[in-house]
Amino acid sequence: MDKFTVHQGVVIPLDRSNVDTDAIIPKQYLKSIKRSGFGVTLFDDWRYVKAGEPDMDHSKREINTDFVLNQSRYKSGSILLSRENFGCGSSREHAVWALTDYGIRVVIAPSYADIFFNNSFKNGLLPIVLEESIVDKLFSSVADETGYSLIVNLETQQVATHDGEHYHFEIDTFRKHSLLNGLDDIGLTLQHTASIRDYEAKRQQEAPWLFYEESEG
Amino acid sequence: MTGKTLYDKIWDAHVVREDASGSTLLYIDRHLVHEVTSPQAFEGLRLADRNLWRKASIVAVPDHNVPTTSEHRGNGTAGIDDPVAKLQIETLNDNCRDFKLTQFKIDDIRQGIVHVIGPEQGAILPGMTVVCGDSHTSTHGAFGALAHGIGTSEVEHVMATQCLIQKKMQNMQIVIKGSVAKGVTAKDIVLAIIGKIGTAGGTGYAIEFAGKGITDLSMEGRMTVCNMAIEAGARAGMIAVDQTTIDYVKGRPYSPKAEHWDTAVNQWQDLHSDSDAVFDQVISLNGAEIKPQVTWGTSPEMVLAIDKNVPDPSQEQDPVKRVAIEAALEYMGLEANQAMTDIRVDKVFIGSCTNSRIEDIREAAKLAKGAKVSSNILLAMVVPGSGLVKQQAEKEGLDKILIEAGFEWREPGCSMCLAMNADKLESGERCASTSNRNFEGRQGQGGRTHLVSPAMAVAAAIHGRFTDSRGEV
């Protein structure tokens, strides 16, 4: 996984609550067996006029000019600003892959759905929780200024504006450490192989039916 | 010391280690795998040259992408028209072969929706920790298990380590006081709960459902309730073990063998919250007040009883909510203050991991018997949750009743719940659906989904619009 330390980027405002993972990446693209290539179909239903299919040339599709991703002022954006309960619904990690593949490195919202939040950290995408009043303020700043950008510092856990305001955000220490160092969770867990084996041996004594090699059927 | 909740008990029994920050390695007993969220995990294992920690913990099945018409199901994966879908299912076949995993393939009678076949095979047992790369894994909490949906990176992590890195959630109890009225189903109960607490109301919690309205339910009904815990934001929903649970589990292929049965049942007796357990939040609903529910918007929390009117955004004080209501009405093609019973329907879908079990099909057939699907309905389909559910329904003659009434009787799969296969809505079409999500475009771009129980779906099919299913029997 890529390291995340400091990121500066243009903010893309997506002023909706309950943005679900079906909206982030519609189901027809989940048939892919790869982790990459989802950026071009990020927010597909909102971004294009007609429904897309996986085998299309997406550069030839008619775009919905009202949608933020299609507005020139947000073209280079890499920080997504949204509303409460972002990423609700399906567990599809494809939603995170679509955001990162598009170039999003940070999401800022008042709250997230649990599975999406968790998936983000596994892919170097930083989901930041800021109070609703601050999010409101950021939405109006973005509307007022073309090219409005923010600086996100993971080490100091701060979002900074160009006029010198700083907003602190909370993050779990384990997740922060993993992101800062680009660590692989599986490698970390496998350092505890002996503990897992010990647990299994004890558990198998207590509940042998959990360890059947195959069903009776 | 205060008592423990059911969640506390299962959590404590699965902690391998915990670090100072509370980050915990939680041991996983059962891992369900399907074709959509697993290929990248298998690929990750291969790239890192890692093997699976405990193969026997995995049960795999293709469900999201499979066709449901009989002409496409006679010939295994060769019958799938869509080359992209076909490749994904073949990839699951290849991965299960290479890693030597148990898979119920597309033409196996045991194939079906992962959250239907797991319990059906006895692969979900009380006290287990269960994961699957699918948010509706919360279903399995109905067995007094701790079950939650995970992303693909976590699928790979569990495959490689048998553990999940987790922080403990908070405890919420939702009590349905007293019995629900006759004709009110598990789906109505859970929709009413989501209407009350909202789609983010359970975020960060494990929800335990309790009270007479819950314990009265069959295992099928309990699975329907826990299935939609995620639509209230909770990764895990659960229900204490009782005799209903134990009776269901007994004698299934993966259940404890005779020599272990008594020990298992003895351990399972403790799988309930202690009387002095403390929940971080407790919410109560009066069972008698719950009526058949219909969603009107594009989030499961946008739900009302059938006798209500569509909300009026001008009455909403909160500006963010007002905008959401306006956007939902626009997308759904509905007018403020319109009676729910005036909403006409184009298609009807009975199926999904929420409502495709034998009890659901029986309920549908009971209402459909002797009736006819209304002439304005373009398609009414019943998609059983598994090959075994289908077989059982056919043994009982339910398929004939449904076909006679004008429903299509399909092969098992996720089907139009998420429309990854050919079963989908056209833009602007309105569907009465027994599935779990009414998001924009969920059942096809521009499609309009109303979530209901199987009984309400049949009533809508017969009348061509929503109506109180309790008038039908």
Write a structural description.
By secondary structure, chain A is α/β, with parallel strands linked by helices. Chain A has helices at 21-24, 44-47, 94-102, 114-121, 132-144, 173-181, 185-190, 193-206; strands at 6-13, 79-81, 106-109, 126-129, 149-153, 158-160, 166-168. Chain A has a 7-stranded mixed sheet. Chain A is built from 8 helices and 7 strands; from the N terminus they run βααβαβαβαβββααα. Chain B has 473 residues and is an alpha/beta fold. Chain B has helices spanning 6-12, 39-47, 83-98, 114-120, 152-161, 186-197, 212-215, 219-227, 243-249, 258-268, 319-332, 358-368, 387-395, 398-405, 454-463, and strands at residues 15-18, 24-27, 30-33, 58-60, 102-103, 129-132, 146-149, 163-166, 170-177, 205-210, 236-238, 281-286, 293-295, 303-305, 347-350, 379-382, 408-409, 430-433, 448-451. In chain B, strands 5-4-3-6-7 form a 5-stranded parallel sheet, sandwiched between helices. A 5-stranded parallel sheet of chain B has the order 17-16-15-18-19. In chain B, helix 6 (186-197) runs parallel beside helix 8 (219-227), helix 12 (358-368) packs across helix 14 and helix 12 (358-368) packs parallel to helix 15. The longest helix of chain B is centred in the N-terminal third of the chain and has 16 residues, at 83-98. At the A-B interface, helix 4, helix 7 and helix 8 of A face helix 2, helix 3, helix 5, helix 10 and helix 11 of B.
Q: Find the structural class of chain A using helix and strand composition.
A: alpha/beta
Shape summary of chain A: globular
Contiguous uncertain segments of 5+ residues of chain A: none
User: Major β-sheet of chain B, in short?
Assistant: 5 strands, parallel
